[in-house]
Amino acid sequence: MPTAPESRYDQSSGAEIAGRRSFIAVTLHRQDAPSMDESVKAIELQTLAGAKHAAEVDPIATKSHTTPRTARILMLIAVIAPFFGLIAAMLSLWGWGFRWSDLGLLLGMYVLTGIGITVGFHRLFTHRSFETNWLVEFVLAVLGSMAVQGPLLQWVAAHRQHHQHSDHPEDPHSPHHQGNGLWGILRGMWHAHLGWMFTSELPDVQRYVRDLKQSKVIRAVSALFPLWIALGLLIPTAVGWLLVGTPSGAATGFVWGGLVRIFFVHHVTWSINSVCHVWGQQPYCAGDQSRDNIFFGIFGMGEGWHNTHHAFPTSARHGLSWWQIDVSYWVIRGLELVGLAWNVKLPSRAAIARQSRHRGL
Ligand SMILES: [Zn+2]
Ligand SMILES: [Zn+2]
Q: Which of 160, 167, 163 is nearest to 289 (CA)?
């Protein structure tokens, strides 16, 4: 029986990508079926010729480990402390007034650690959408770790599992399997946003990140996660002290550049998992509920063009239209221009046209 265009697609077509040497190709084969539950989704994360850093993922097994109690307690602290930091920041506005240095520290640390997540953890380490040298890898890995979203290897494993099973029951953070009606939607949003970190099982890191574990630098950065959290709090504290010249400058630097910044980076990143699988446009056939959301496209530094990303997971550029602001791609393009990034993967015009829902997009 012929397969309908809407129900069968090949994400490696998103990988008719110029200039690639190695990357993870995600191939979805969906049978002709009216609903997600009836469809069969087999995934292959496969290496192409010349692949140097390829994930070898068993396409069938979904073995995982229960999240340890200590890890859940630490994650609870990591979620709650920035919230109290936000309240402290509001109180400091009331009591001490506003300092430009605090806003600068908030924005500077937001952009740096955000890029660590979007360019580093996501586009480089998870999807291998470009290649770079070990020093740039190290810097991006450290910056991403400062965002306090879990050790690098764990983050990548969870995100690869998300792509492998996107919006199916094995997806660690889909908002679509928590019941029907308004209550189901609310439960789903909570689960996808942060509930999954406390209830889900951890993906099997060994299986999902074999490629990354071959790198000593990546293994070391991932293992030293607590050190990078401390550094991410120490830097704004020290800079705040230097700029203001008093201990109160250090205190507000810690609160704004540390806790408040972590709060915003957390919730913008997690909104990609929750909001961007519920609200927004679907210009491409991606085989799941992913959406392009303009708000998180801008504030998520390009990550909110999430339907486009699911359609072309190995593309370094997520905002493919000229008007889709994609700060993370600008960073990658900048690195490429100065010779610090190469084999930057982009989908061909033919691949874009093939997966577009609208002719002439
Ligand atoms: Zn997604
Ligand atoms: Zn991704």
A: 167
Report how far ligand 2's centroid is from the alpha carbon of 250 (Å). 36
Ligand 2 centroid vs 101 CA: distance in angstroms?
34
Over range 98-115, report the average pLDDT.
93
C-alpha of residue 241 to centroid of ligand 2, in Å: 38
55 CA to centre of own chain = 17
Residue type, 145: S
What's the gap in Å between 44 CA and the centre of ligand 2?
15
Cα 159 from Cα 163, distance rounded (Å)? 6
Q: List residues bridging with 17 in a β-sheet.
A: 347
Going by the DSSP 8-state scheme, the letter that residue 340 receives in this structure is S
Cα(310) to centroid(ligand 2), Å: 7
pLDDT value for 255: 92
The C-alpha atoms of residue 312 and residue 204 are separated, in whole angstroms, by: 24
CA-CA distance, 328 to 270, in Å (whole number)? 17
CA of 120 to the centre of ligand 1 (A): 17
Mean pLDDT of 188-216: 85
193 exposed, middle or buried (CB, 10 Å; 0-12, 13-18, 19+)? Answer: buried
236 CA → ligand 1 middle, Å? 31
For the CA of 286, the nearest ligand: 1
Q: pLDDT category, 72, cuts 50, 70, 90?
A: confident
Ligand nearest to the CA of 26: 2
b/e per residue 301-312 (b: at least 16 CB within 10 A): bbbbbbbbbbbb
Residue 64: pLDDT band with limits 50, 70, 90:
low
| Res 323 pLDDT > 80 | yes
Q: What is the largest CA-CA distance in the chain?
A: 74
State the pLDDT confidence band at 306, using cuts at 50, 70 and 90.
very high
Phi and psi (nearest 5°) for 194?
-150, -15
Cα-to-centroid distance, 118 and ligand 2 (Å) = 9
- Which helix (H) or strand (E) element contains residue 42? strand 41-47
Whole-structure pTM value: 0.81
Distance of CA 289 from the midpoint of ligand 2 (Å): 14
Place of tokens 């079926």: 33
